[in-house]
Design goal:
Layout (H helix, E strand, L loop, with lengths): L1 E3 L2 H13 L4 E6 L5 H13 L2 E6 L19 H10 L4 E3 L3 H4 L18 H5 L3 H16 L3 E5 L3 H13 L5 E5 L19 H6 L1 H15 L5 H13 L5 E9 L13 E8 L4 E8 L2
Parallel strand pairs: 1-4, 2-3, 2-5, 3-4, 5-6
Antiparallel strand pairs: 7-8, 8-9
Helix pairs in contact: 6-7, 9-10
Bound molecules: adenosine monophosphate.
């Protein structure tokens, strides 16, 4: 396995891989890898000749009051984990390598898809995500790129961007990996105190209970939403950013639960803002 920091260097290497007819997979990450990331890497490893993992904490997707400075980082640990998973190349550029001093070009969408959920509360977040993912696609030129459904809206936004802009890459979305007690794995879980870690279980529990209620016949999305809000509000210090029930494919608002829906939430539990979601097939 090789760790590469320069755009030109990874390009030259991957040109040779392509000449040798090797298929290339990209797993974009911000590092501090956990089993969620590793599940994407394993899936990529099984289905491609060459696996590239990018590790880049992308400043343009963080808002001014977010945790860019304190975002957990441990590149040596990440390198070891990638090595164990049989990764071929880690692409780990510096901020300067990705964004020169005169950097000025971004990818944005006019679709409503970025105005809701995380896009509503994290201004400019998806502009940063779409731009960096496009840059990574242009640098790596992957045949397939792997994303987790933990960031449900992110996958939808990227799939739409790839379709709209005819980017020649196949987007593979992978299931959410959870701790044994149900908490969705996240690099930000390291911010949780033991008490917050226990209280955070309400997120997945309320989603699972909502799914059961819908499957038993409840069609009223406001009723389901209120039930989730009530459960989360039992944690007095939690700060709910959103709890939304949307069309699972388009992320459009719905009147009643009469199709496949995604229930998505973002809640601040202590320091971290945690996200989770569940799909209910209608
Ligand atoms: P991040 O490093 O948080 O930007 O995540 C990199 C990729 O890993 C994204 O596609 C995430 O959706 C995915 N990912 C993060 N956590 C999980 C998880 N618990 N289960 C599945 N995928 C995940």
């Amino acid at each position: 396995m090789k760790r590469i920091e320069k755009i030109n260097e990874i390009r030259n290497i991957l040109d040779l891989e392509r000449k040798a007819n090797h298929s290339i997979a990209l797993v974009p990450t911000m590092g501090f890898l956990h089993e969620g990331h590793l599940s994407l890497i394993k899936e990529a490893r099984q289905n491609n000749d060459i696996v590239v993992v990018s590790i880049f904490v992308n400043p343009t997707q963080f808002g001014p009051n977010e945790d860019l400075e304190t975002y957990p980082r441990d590149i040596n640990r990440d390198v070891n984990l990638c090595e164990q998973e049989g990764v071929d190349y880690i692409f780990n550029p510096s901020v300067e390598e990705m964004y020169g001093e005169d950097y000025a070009t971004y990818v944005i969408t006019e679709s409503d898809i970025t105005n809701k959920l995380c896009g509503a509360s994290r201004e400019g977040h998806f502009k940063g995500v779409m731009s960096v993912v496009t840059k990574l696609f242009n640098i790596i030129g992957p045949d397939k790129a792997y994303f987790g459904r933990k960031d449900y809206q992110q996958v939808a936004v990227i799939k739409k961007m790839v379709r709209d802009l005819n980017i020649p890459v196949e987007i593979i979305d992978c299931p959410i990996v959870r701790e044994s007690d149900g908490l969705a794995m996240s690099s930000r879980n390291t911010y949780l105190t033991p008490k917050e870690r226990k209280d955070a279980l309400v997120l997945n529990r309320s989603l699972k209970e909502a799914k059961e209620r819908i499957l038993k016949g409840e069609k009223n999305k406001d009723v389901i939403r209120e039930e989730i809000l009530d459960k989360i509000n039992e944690i007095p210090y939690s700060e709910i950013d959103y709890v939304e029930i949307l069309d699972a494919t388009t992320l459009e608002n719905i009147e009643t639960i009469d199709r496949d829906v995604v229930i998505a939430l973002a809640v601040k539990i202590g320091k971290p803002r945690l996200i989770d979601n569940i799909v209910v097939e209608g």
